[in-house]
UniProtKB/TrEMBL annotation:
Keywords: Glutamine amidotransferase, Hydrolase, Lyase, Pyridoxal phosphate. It catalyses: L-glutamine + H2O = L-glutamate + NH4(+). This is glutaminase. One of its GO terms (cellular component) is cytosol. Belongs to the glutaminase PdxT/SNO family. GO terms for molecular function: glutaminase activity; lyase activity. Its EC number is 3.5.1.2. InterPro entries: Class_I_gatase-like (IPR029062), PdxT/SNO (IPR002161), PdxT/SNO_CS (IPR021196). GO terms for biological process: pyridoxal phosphate biosynthetic process; pyridoxine metabolic process.
Amino acid sequence: MPRLGILALQGDVREHQATVQSLGIEPTLVRTPQQLEEVDALILPGGESTAIAHLLVTSGLREPLANRLNEGMAAFGTCAGLIALSAEVLDGRSDQWSFAMLDVAVRRNGYGRQVASFETPIEVESLGLVPGVFIRAPRIERWDPQVEVLASHDHGDGEHPVLVKQGAVWGCSFHPELTSNAEIHGLFLQHVGF
Ligand code: GLN
């Protein structure tokens, strides 16, 4: 049985944990390079992308995680996790780095600040409508043709992808872990062999 990890440095780790537990999976919380070695796929939670990037360095996880991702490990980033997996971060901190596993450019807080957070139904290919909770969400502003768009949303200024995948790496602008609907996690896990 493959083993699922959740990057547990900062952010809504418990919410992802509860969501995958509702699907019958007991995840490994990953805080060290040793724990990373035990897992076959990794969820990168929402939170604060600059804090997560900083803690990835201080925990010694940045390099081994970059290597695992380049070797093809499956990963699913939500919100700040999407930012961490993106090729380009717009409105990032000047020293902000990312793993560049998804050929997309994301704008931090691209849907507005905290007060502009919103919830809206999102139509996901093969699932139908799921609840979309957007909190200081990154907006995908450019995406390579290799990136598969599984869901888009028009927030009044045109359609932007909100759920994408490229190979075994998935990214989501919103927070499927903050609702009781586990379908997006289920779809990801099914695609990557769980
Ligand atoms: N805006 C946050 C950041 O740049 C992400 C917000 C979130 O994960 N809810 O890190």
